[in-house]
Structures are given as structure tokens and as C-alpha cells.
């Protein structure tokens, strides 16, 4: 079996592009985020990490707090 994608991130990129308006995450209250919403959160984290001086290769621990009513919030710890 040959895989089309050599990295998980490329597979995620395709899933986001192909399913932009479809539900991706839901909580037990019924709040739902689409794949597009998730992509926007990823882009914001990318910008925030860059503003903090993080660069490719730095180690980061991410602790999500899914309060979807207020939006996904992330705590990140860098080494």
C-alpha cells in the first residue's frame, strides 16, 4: 500500500481544504467548529508563536481548553 502523503501535516491540509464548511469538532453542549474554524485557529497560533520568537524546530507543548462558546483557547509552553 502506497501513501499519497508523506507527512501528517499535508494530510491535515488536504482534509481542511476538502471539508472547509463541514463540522470538525463538537462538544457535549452541541457547539460545533468547522474545518475552516479549526484552520483559522491554527493560523492564529502560528502568528502568535512567531510573535513570541518561536521558530521551526523549537519544542512547544500545547494544552487545549475547548470552551467553544468563547472559542478555542490554547496554552503553549516553549522550551
In short:
This protein is an alpha+beta fold and 79 residues long. It has 2 helices and 4 strands; from the N terminus they run αββαββ.
Task: Describe the protein's topology.
Blueprint: H1 8-18, E1 23-26, E2 32-34, H2 35-51, E3 60-67, E4 71-78
Antiparallel strand pairs: 1-2, 3-4
Provide the succession of SSEs.
Answer: HEEHEE
Walk across the major sheet and give the strand order: 1-2
Return residue spans where pLDDT drops below 50 for at least 5 consecutive residues: none
Mean pLDDT reading: 79
Specify the structural class.
Answer: alpha+beta
Task: Tell me the distance between the termini.
Answer: 38 Å
Model description:
This protein has 79 residues and is of the alpha+beta class. The protein has 2 helices and 4 strands. It has helices at 8-18, 35-51, and strands at residues 23-26, 32-34, 60-67, 71-78. The strands form 2 sheets. It has a two-stranded antiparallel ribbon. Strands 3-4 form a two-stranded antiparallel sheet. The longest helix has 17 residues, at 35-51. It is globular and about 35 Å long.
Amino acid at each position: 500500500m502506497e501513501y499519497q502523503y508523506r507527512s501528517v501535516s499535508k494530510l491535515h491540509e488536504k482534509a481542511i481544504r476538502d471539508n472547509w464548511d463541514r463540522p470538525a469538532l463538537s462538544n457535549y453542549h452541541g457547539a460545533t467548529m468547522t474545518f475552516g474554524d479549526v484552520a483559522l485557529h491554527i493560523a492564529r497560533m502560528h502568528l502568535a508563536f512567531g510573535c513570541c520568537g518561536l521558530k521551526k524546530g523549537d519544542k512547544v507543548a500545547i494544552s487545549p481548553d475547548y470552551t467553544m462558546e468563547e472559542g478555542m483557547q490554547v496554552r503553549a509552553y516553549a522550551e
